[in-house]
Design a protein that fits this description.
The protein is mainly beta. The protein folds into 4 domains: 154 residues, no CATH class; 74 residues, no CATH class; 50 residues, no CATH class; 40 residues, no CATH class. It has 1 helix and 15 strands, in the order βββββββββββββββα. A hairpin with a 5-residue loop joins strand 9 and strand 10. The longest helix has 17 residues.
Length: 348
């Protein structure tokens, strides 16, 4: 007979339910497809104290992996009261052995009406935690799962008049975008098909305290909002622009490509700028590189030598050599020739 406290194991250890309930499963307590809404009051990740699978940390099959939440449910059915669901499994949009997406619902940290935060007395609409939709696995009240998020009743607190992306609420004027926002950074496709990544309001997720309770953090001035693309060393990172006059035969008009040997910019598929090598071997080629640029330092040395020779120069005559020129005919080197804004390695 199967253990009524655990999911049944079949085959080579496959468990036929996603969560292991910590209370006895009562087959007579059917949810009948019930869906509930609630606000997250606590979140547990794999190494959180109090994680429902904490006791199985050394068990390969049942060790903590999934995200769980405690949820304050606020039903709208007349006569029903708010109540808490503990250790609710959080479903993810995708999930696999080495692929998937991870969503960690935000737990409430403040009552943005200014009242003390109390788990089961604070108005859920005033709590800053994520609002979620809860269903029941196997149609059992003993196996609640968070299915997805619901719009927060006070979404865009402090951003009501901001541009879309910083603001989450859609208006008719926004038309048909597809954006994802997290900790102030948003990315996605706008209504005109433009792909956008905007991290100018990046933050660590902490919301403002008094007097602007629930407002998102100000734009960062401490380095947050950086954007990094990480590729293996043999890969190529490229940005290519196409002439789409004939959509059946796009023509490349501009590209910038980076690989482990060089940075190459091309116009009309012809080399425009190439940077390669490193340290003293670094080399820049502009266009076809048909002629060479002078190195100002060596040119200055040559000019100084010629100037000294010219100022001391004499000519033979019938009465002996002449003297050097009376007036100095050679001006001093113009230091503006030596650029401080463009520096290159010494000539190889």
């Amino acid at each position: 007979m199967a253990n009524t406290y655990e999911g049944q194991v079949v085959g080579t250890g496959t468990r036929i339910q996603a969560g292991v309930p910590l209370r006895r499963v009562n087959a007579d307590r059917k949810a009948n497809g019930l869906l509930l809404r609630g606000v997250v009051t606590k979140t547990y990740v794999s190494d959180s104290g109090g994680h429902p699978m904490e006791a199985y940390a050394d068990d390969d099959l049942r060790r903590p992996t999934a995200v769980y939440c405690d949820v304050l449910v606020y039903p709208s059915i007349p006569g029903q009261r708010w109540f808490a669901l503990y250790h609710v499994l959080v479903t993810q949009p995708t999930g696999g052995l080495h692929r998937g997406r991870v969503w960690k619902p935000r737990a409430s940290t403040q009552d943005i009406s200014g009242e003390p935060l109390e788990d089961q007395t604070s108005n859920p609409a005033h709590q800053d935690g994520d609002h979620v939709l809860v269903g029941f696995l196997n149609d059992s009240f003993d196996q609640p799962v968070v299915l997805r998020g619901l719009p927060h009743p006070l979404v865009d607190k402090g951003h009501e008049d901001a541009a879309l992306g910083w603001r989450m609420k859609l208006t008719e004027a926004d038309k048909d975008p597809d954006f994802v926002k997290h900790h102030g950074t948003f990315y996605g496709v706008d209504s005109d098909g433009n792909f956008l990544v905007d991290s100018t309001f990046a933050n660590d997720g902490a919301l403002k305290d008094s007097p602007e309770l629930g407002h998102e953090a100000d734009p960062p001035v401490d380095g947050k909002g950086s954007q990094t693309f990480k590729l293996p060393q043999d890969a190529t990172f490229a940005v290519v622009l196409y002439d789409m006059t004939d959509p059946t035969a796009p023509s490349e008009v501009m590209s910038i490509a980076i690989d482990k040997n060089k940075i190459l910019a091309q116009v009309e598929q012809n080399d425009s700028l190439k940077v390669e090598g490193d340290l003293a071997d670094a080399k820049i080629t502009l266009g076809d590189g048909a002629v060479k640029a002078a190195v100002a330092d060596h040119l200055q040395t040559l000019y100084t030598t010629l100037k000294a020779w010219l100022e001391a120069h004499t000519h033979p005559s019938g009465t002996g050599p002449t003297g050097p020129p009376v007036n100095n005919p050679a001006p001093d080197w113009d230091t503006n020739i030596n650029s401080s804004q463009m520096l290159i390695p010494d000539t190889q």
